[in-house]
Design goal:
Elements (H helix, E strand, L loop, with lengths): L1 H5 L3 E3 L16 E3 L12 E3 L2 E3 L8 H5 L1 H4 L1
Parallel strand pairs: 1-2
Antiparallel strand pairs: 3-4
């Protein structure tokens, strides 16, 4: 809310592992997700299926194996 009220442009990058930025940089604020937004939840099993909640800030290698490890 602060950035909007101040007229500052902003972007959310998740973890930012596949991010390319121009040499000139970025105009505004860049937010990296941490804490609960970078967490892997416990799996929910139901019959022959399973669901795992994974935050946008979790790295790709962790995200890909989240269900397999649980």
């Amino acid at each position: 809310r602060f950035f909007g009220e101040e007229g500052i442009p902003w972007q959310v990058i998740g973890k930012g592992t596949n991010l390319l930025v121009a040499d000139a940089g970025v105009a505004g604020a860049v937010l990296r997700l941490q804490g609960e937004l970078a967490a892997i939840g416990e799996p929910h099993l139901g019959g022959e299926s399973a669901r795992v909640t994974v935050g946008a800030g979790v790295g790709q290698h962790h995200r890909a194996g989240a269900g397999r490890r649980r």
